[in-house]
């Protein structure tokens, strides 16, 4: 994504957008973590915070952003409600941060986990 101004040019890399998305997703109720886009042997690993970008796919097409997310959801949660909440939160956060429309947010549930409760 780039933007021309009278002062110069602003460029935001897909990885920076992925970071915004990853941090937003982790704040969503019902999400345990993010998983890499490719699942090995049917097992979804939870990504560490520094690797969240691996759980997000970003495409910029004709000044609109399309996002694919790979998440792990808390066991017992209604998947459709969590996914819709994630979609709305990500769309809002990215549009607020970048002033650029998000055309779609696709949520791919890679696994269900029981979170650790202390």
Based on DSSP secondary structure assignment, what is the total number of beta strands?
6
What's the multimeric state? Answer: single chain
The whole-angstrom Rg is 15 Å
CATH 4th-level superfamily: Cation efflux protein, cytoplasmic domain
Q: What's the overall geometry?
A: elongated
CATH topology: Alpha-Beta Plaits
Mean pLDDT: 86
- CATH classification, class level: Alpha Beta
Unreliable residue stretches? none
- From the N-terminal CA to the C-terminal CA, the straight-line distance is 42 Å
The helical percent reads 25-40%
Counting DSSP H or I runs of 4 or more residues, the number of helices is 2
User: Helix/strand-derived class?
Assistant: alpha+beta
CATH architecture: 2-Layer Sandwich
* H and E order: EEHEEEHE
Question: How does the major sheet shape up?
Answer: 4 strands, mixed
Q: Estimate nothing, just give the exact number of structural domains.
A: 1
Keywords for this entry:
single chain, 118 residues, alpha+beta, Alpha-Beta Plaits, four-stranded mixed β-sheet, two-stranded antiparallel sheet, 2 helices, 28% helix, elongated
Q: How do the helices and strands line up, and which of them pair or pack?
A:
Blueprint lengths: L1 E4 L2 E4 L2 H13 L4 E4 L21 E6 L2 E11 L4 H20 L3 E12 L5
Parallel strand pairs: 5-6
Antiparallel strand pairs: 1-2, 3-5, 4-5
Describe the structure.
The structure is a single chain. 28% of the residues lie in helices and 35% in strands. It is α+β, with helices and mostly antiparallel strands. It has a single domain, classed as Alpha-Beta Plaits (2-Layer Sandwich), CATH 3.30.70.1350. The strands form 2 sheets. Strands 3, 4, 5 and 6 form a 4-stranded mixed β-sheet that branches. A two-stranded antiparallel sheet has the order 1-2. Helix 1 crosses helix 2. The longest helix has 20 residues. It is elongated and about 50 Å long. It starts with a strand and ends in a 5-residue tail after the last strand. The mean pLDDT is 86.
